[in-house]
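Q: My labmate handed me this sequence with no annotations at all. I'd like to see what the chain might look like in three dimensions before we decide whether it's worth expressing. Could you predict it?
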Amino acid sequence: MDKFLSCDWGTSAFRLRLIDTKDLKTIASIKNDQGISGTFKSWQESPGNPDRISYYTAFLNDQISQLSQKTSILLDGIPVMLSGMASSTIGLIDLPYKEFPFQTDGSDLEVRSLNNNNLNPLIVISGARTEDDVMRGEETKIIGCAPDLGSTGQEQLVILPGTHPKHIIIKDQQAVSFKTFMTGEFFDLLSTKSILSASVEKGGDFNDPLNRENFIKGIEASQHSDLLHASFMVRTNQVLKNISKQQNLYYLSGLLIGSELKELKPSVPVYLLGGATHLPLYTLACEITGVNIMGSMDADEALIKGQQIIFQNVFRDL
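A: Here is what I predict for the chain of 318 residues:
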């Protein structure tokens, strides 16, 4: 099969891509804010109490139809790979988490196939868990970036920045443990809902020397200060030191990212897996804190590559 549909269905957003399997290029895509949370709410409020799977697949089939019209390509029968919240308790189908560890070739993840009334087969990829932490979507990205990590027996750390960054330990071609951090969500709460919101402002360019300088100051402060105390310095930076609000935003960002990276061991090689917004921030933060960066990859590319690997696993077994 020379194409598949890549679906990244998160809590607050939906994205569907048509992928060429030969080079993993995106032929066309659709993106909107109809995430799993909104879809679940609209299903609950819909009249007639429709079956949940039928309700979700009707929405999905409509998006496939729109993509078909956009590309003038008949998409009937092309499989859909679904990652993220599609397998959650509020998703298309509730699948159990794969318990850690899991193989980085994707061979032992929890995957379920649905025939979708013989239109587009649906392949739903579940998340993974430890005794006290969970992930959905990141496991697919790990599968996608694993070929670039090599087969070393040494521990490697993959960092996935975002609202809830994941630090995933890889060893002997297995994901063996991970931690979730609240970095992105804390940044949003502090910069929009707290007293600090009056002291920061979005819109500044990270490449501006003063923004970078204050980002580095935030990282350095995180290494020797208590986070709850250092956070208030964002306020005093503006009130007492006349640091601009945009520069102060980068100070807060550096403070939180630096706190996230504070306990990393310099001896463990790190691989960054993120997007254009986060990779420059985390790359500089790692350099300042002495973290050993071995490489990086775009998170969307890793997702698509991981879905293709799992796609090949599924159809090889059929």
